[in-house]
Design brief:
With 175 residues, the protein is α/β, with parallel strands linked by helices. It is built from 6 helices and 5 strands; from the N terminus they run αβαβαααβββα. Strands 2-1-3-4-5 form a 5-stranded mixed β-sheet, sandwiched between helices. A hairpin with a 7-residue loop joins strand 4 and strand 5. The longest helix has 24 residues. The two termini are 29 Å apart.
Length: 175
């Protein structure tokens, strides 16, 4: 697995985090820890990977990440609001975490609706600026991934890793 595209994307994110001396936390629902698995597949990942949360059930999103149950009730677990709350919750679990990503989606084969078909995933990203007590920045992106459950989960993980690397480069510049 060390040379798979998923692990290569994890390696690139790890390098970007390492160059900026940043620690990451992940908050995953539909991927069930696949992103954290890819990141920790790499030797030395403890230098930039702080922790990962698998918050598959709605109660876990609330218990582990502080996502308000009312937010889930109002917008649904697969929503921009919940993805952002998950990313901010992961970022807020420890001051030493400077970057977080979250994913919440419908991997299928059931669970979809007309508004949110199977393959709908929302990605959340949050990060602190370089100064102490810096402003927290964030991005949320809704995507659709076709295919079966495995395809959706893999595509979700790949996009999350690649987009996190891109955000580090564009929002935090070169190290």
């Amino acid at each position: 697995m060390q040379h798979s595209p998923l692990i290569q994307a994890a390696r690139e994110l790890g390098q970007a985090l390492s160059e900026r001396a940043m620690m990451i936390a992940t908050a995953e629902s539909c991927t069930g820890g696949m992103i954290a698995m890819a990141l920790t597949e790499l030797a030395g990942s403890s230098l930039w990977f702080e922790r990962g949360f698998v918050s598959y059930a709605n109660r876990a999103k609330s218990d582990l990440l502080g996502v308000a149950a009312s937010l889930i009730d109002q917008h649904g677990a697969v929503s921009e609001e919940v993805a952002l709350a998950m990313a901010l919750g992961a970022l807020g679990t420890h001051q030493g975490i400077q970057f977080s990503l979250s994913v919440t989606g419908i991997a299928g084969p059931t669970g979809g609706s007309e508004d949110k078909p199977v393959g709908t995933v929302v990605h959340g990203f949050a990060w602190r600026g370089p100064a102490e007590h810096a402003t927290i920045h964030h991005r949320v992106m809704r995507r659709y991934y076709p295919g079966n459950r495995a395809d959706v989960r893999l595509a979700t993980s790949m996009f999350a890793l690649r987009q996190a690397s891109l955000l580090l480069q564009t929002e935090l510049g070169s190290a």
